[in-house]
Each structure stands twice: as C-alpha cells, then as structure tokens.
Amino acid sequence: MSKPWVFISPSSRGIGHALTAHLLRSTTLPILATARSDLAGVKESLVAASTTSLNRKSSEDAASRLHVTCLDVTDESSVKAASEKAAELFPPSSHHLHLAFALPGILHPEKHPRQVDYDAALETLKVNTLGPLVLMKWFGELLPRKGTDMSYVKMRGGSDPDGSSDEDHRLRVPAHATWVTNSARVGSTGDNRLGGWYSYRASKAGVNSITKSFDLHLRSRSADNAVAFAYHPGTVKTGLSSEFWANVAQDKLFSPEFAVRKMLEVVGTRTVRDGGRCWDWKGEEVLP
C-alpha cells in the first residue's frame, strides 16, 4: 500500500504558513514545506504555530513530520532539487504525493495600461503562472499513477490516513490525491466587470488554463487516483492584499485560518469529476 504525504509551496508566509500549521495539527501525515530562505526559522515558526508550548509531545511529533526545503519558483533548478529531495524522503516505490498546494503569488496592481511596468508584469507571470507550472513539471510525477495501491487511504474512509482518533485529527482526506493551484476570481474573463489589474488578471487566467491541462494529463496518467483544480480563497488578510483591506467589507475579509478551513472543506468535497475547474471558498465554480 502506498503511503501519502503532503506538499505545500510556499509555507513561509500567508495562506501557506497557516495551511501548513493547520495540517500539522489536523493530520498525522508527513509534510514537505518550502521556503526561499531561513529554513530553520520557518520550521520553528510552523511547529510553534501548530502546537502549544504546554504540549511538548505534540511539538516533537510536528517537528518530526515536517520537512522544510529550499524552493524558489523563479529558479527551476531549485524546484528540481526540491523534487529530488521529496523523492528521497518519500520514495515513489512506497509513497505518493496525496495533497499538493501550489500557492506562489505576487500582485502589482495597475488601473491603467500606462501603469503596466514590463519588468513587474514579467515577474508576476513568472511567479503566479510559470511558478505553478514548474511545480507541476517536477512534483507532478510524485502523484499516484493508475496502478498505485491507494487502499492505505481508501480503507480509512476518507479520514486521516493514519487513523488518529484525537479531537484535533478529523480532517477529511479525500481517497484520491488532490493538486490545488492558487487562483483568483479576477482570473475569470467572463467575470471581469471592472477592468484593471492587467498583469495579475492575466497571470491567474493562465493559472486556470494550465490547471485544466494538468488535470487532463492526470486523467490519462492517474485515472481516478488524482485530480487537479484551481482555487479562489477570497480576499485573505495577508501581505499580498494588505493595500486593499480598507476597500473590502469586513465579512468578506478572511483571516488566514478561516481561509484554510474553507479551502480544506472544498478539497474534502471535490470528486475526480470536479477537476480542471476553478472553485471558490464557498464550493461554487468560478467560470472561465
């Protein structure tokens, strides 16, 4: 039986940091997290965020399951090296990537075409679109194939595959592997009613396109053992959106912890028939 593991990139800040800490608390799965620098500091922060200082055993368990490796999505050699590290930690002969979260993102907002800066727009596309694409290229091979024995997960009926009965270990882990690419509603061409944000909109439309293609690839490679979809988390109170918090209604400005809970609810309820599409935090489809 193939054993599952989790991949989150990046994990140093924002949603990725909150998600990694949450999964350390709510599952007993091993996790490979990424950061561009200060790996020891990032790991210490994640372990601290996932446990209480009063629970030493829990802290030691989280630290033993969490691996942090260097990865910069604008440097393909680092992505390749990180995938090789993953294969060492979790040999494909006995393990498979079960939950993958490709979350890189930057924002350079432009209200007018004259505000588009070529270098900034290029950086946006490199991080937001090519970043997830190179993650698919190097980590996609670690997802299960058609013939992978998934019974280690399936026999536990969609709960934490290690079967913990602890109150905090109740995440619904889907029986199939899931690849989630971070997108945004503004990546929808049909929903574009305000214009602006030229480079960011284009980068997220690109995310939706490559995720669709990747899901079609998984249909032939993995059949019902894996699915890929794009995800719109809403406006989350992170550094990416800080400039716009004042323009968002308070009930639509989410904490990272709330955003993570909603993301995992969607992950736990999508089927392999829901792949290749973009879903929002309410579980509703964001049309192209």
Describe the structure.
The chain is of the alpha/beta class. It has a single domain, classed as Rossmann fold (3-Layer(aba) Sandwich). It is 39% helix and 16% strand. It has helices at 14-26, 39-50, 56-65, 76-89, 118-139, 151-154, 198-221, 256-269; strands spanning 3-9, 31-35, 66-70, 95-102, 177-182, 226-232, 235-236, 253-254, 278-280, 285-286. An eight-stranded mixed sheet has the order 3-2-1-4-5-6-9-10, sandwiched between helices. The chain has a two-stranded parallel sheet with strand order 7-8. Strand 1 (3-9), helix 1 and strand 2 form a beta-alpha-beta unit. The radius of gyration is 18 Å and the shape is globular. The N and C termini lie far apart (38 Å). The model is unreliable at 163-169 (pLDDT under 50).
Features:
10 strands; Fungal_SecMetab_SDRs; 288 residues; NAD(P)-bd_dom_sf; Oxidoreductase; Rossmann fold; globular; 8 helices; 8-stranded mixed β-sheet; two-stranded parallel ribbon
**Remind me, CATH topology?**
Rossmann fold
- Mean pLDDT across all residues, rounded? 91
State the order of secondary-structure elements, H for helix, E for strand. Answer: EHEHHEHEHHEHEEEHEE
Beta strands, count: 10
Just give the CATH class: Alpha Beta
Strand content: 15-25%
How do the strands of the widest beta sheet line up side by side?
3-2-1-4-5-6-9-10
Provide the CATH architecture: 3-Layer(aba) Sandwich
